[in-house]
Structures are given as C-alpha cells and as structure tokens.
Amino acid sequence: MTHGVSDALVERLAPRTGEALLDLACGLGDPALALAARVGPTGRVVASDVVPEMLQALQAHDTGRLLQLVECAGEQPAFADHSFDGLSCRFGVMFLDKPVDTFREWRRILRPGGRVAIAVWGAPERNPYFSVVGEALDRHDAAPSKLPNNGRGIFDYAEPGRLSEILSSAGFREVDEGPLPFFMELPDVQPHELLDAQRQLSPLIAERSASLDRPTLERVAHSVAERVTAWRDAAGTGLALPAEAQIVCARRG
Questions:
Q1: What is the pTM of this model?
Q2: Of the residues 92, 101, 192, 196, which has the fewest C-beta atoms closer than 10 A?
C-alpha cells in the first residue's frame, strides 16, 4: 500500500554501487530490498527491526540473500562509528522516545557526508485510510484508542518543519523536507470491506471494534463505505485512497 513512499526514499537517498546502507524499522523489506538492488553485489544493505517476527518473514522473502538482518532498536543502533554511507527509515521515527539523542546516534554510525532519508505520515485529513475509520468509530461511541509507546502516534511529525528542526538540533545539515502525495492501493478491498480489513491489520482498530455489538459494527462499516466509495480504483475491484507522507532528507554534519 505504501510502495510510493518506498520508491521516494530510494530516489532521495540516491544509493550508489558499492555503498553500505542501513534501513531501520525495515518491516518486511521496504525499502531495504530495493536499496540492495541499487548498491549491487559490491555493496551492503543492513535491514534492522526491533520485531523479530518481521525479520523472520523478511529472511524467508529475501530469496537472493541480499540483506544482512540485525535485530535492534532504532534508538540504539548496534553498529560501529562511521559504518554506513546512508540510512533510511520508513514510518519508524514517530515512536522514538528521545529523537534528538537517537539522531545523534545515527550521525555517529554514518560516514562523513552520509545521508538520511526519512518518511513520516502527513496530516490526518490527508490520510483517509486512517482518519475515516477512526472518525466513524468515534461517532458510534467505540472505546477510545489506547495508544502504545507512551501515547505517541503515527501523526506526531505531521506538522511541516517539526522533524527538520529536530534533525538540525542533532547536528544534521542540508535538511530538506516536503510532502509526498500518493495513493494507498487496496486492489481487493471494496468500500464495505475496509473496516474489516483494518480490523485484521491494526490491533488498535480491532480493540476499538471489539467494544461494539454487531449491529453497531455494521453501521460503522456502512458509514466508512459511504465516505470511501468515491475512491474506487480504475478497475472497480478495490480502492485507491489518497494519502500524504512527509519525506525528510539530510546529511551528516
């Protein structure tokens, strides 16, 4: 659903043949696998995540053994000084406890002139995949969200300039930030199925939905369908929801 963001991170990081790169919060391999294709056999891409199940799934998917997999948190990357030419992080920095300290650690493991490319979510109103279901649950008095990670959420850096300021405070230079409009494609999800799809993908949505009886859930699903039906994809078999991320790039100062 977010391949457009991964593509943008790869292009902004501009990997070169033979470079050493790190993809933090790698999930199932976006954009780590694409980065590996760009650096080639003489390069090295380390994919790191704090969730071991993610790394296990990625290991099974990485049939060409293009990646080195390392389990560690983004706050304390377990690498030596000046280990990498570039670093990417897609939708991971929103959950950092101490972002300035973390970015200083990222500077430490980057070589002089090393680059970072980061993706965070834009404003909720520009991301109906998240906002439409949440608003429908609110209107039908579902239990409120219990945010993990001390209440931090996916929109913590939606305000333009906020993440750039923190990167600058951590010693990065040539900081550049801009919005990336794209479409979240759900090719096999019809409007009336979006609520159930999110219940399967999101523990928070599943927990909130569990507080409602079946008739109320059906009303929520109907309300969601009414909001998103205008965003059917061209084939008419699924949805293509407008979305927006913020892409932030910088160099090691």
A1: 0.91
A2: 101
Report the alpha-carbon distance of residue 131 to residue 158 in Å, rounded.
13
Distance CA 61, CA 55 (A): 10
Q: What is the mean predicted confidence (pLDDT) over 22-46?
A: 95
Give the Cα separation of 72 and 144 in Å (integer).
31
What's the confidence (pLDDT) of residue 148?
55
User: Any bridge partners for residue 173, and if so which?
Assistant: 251
- Whether the CB-CB separation of 133 and 147 falls below 8 Å is answered with no
Tokens of 182: 């794209």
Q: Are 182 and 246 in contact (CB under 8 A)?
A: no
Q: How far is residue 98 from each of residues 47, 60, 71, 166, 252, measured CA to CA in Å?
A: 22, 33, 20, 10, 18
CB atoms within 10 A of CB 251: 17
Angle between helices 128-139 and 194-201 (to 10 degrees): 100
**Residue holding tokens 């219990």?**
146
User: Taking residues 126-132, what's their average pLDDT?
Assistant: 95
Strands in the chain per DSSP E: 20-24, 44-49, 67-71, 84-90, 110-121, 172-186, 239-252
Q: What is the pLDDT of residues 44-66, one digit of tens each?
A: 999 999 999 999 999 998 998 99
From CA 1, how far away is CA 178, in angstroms rounded?
20
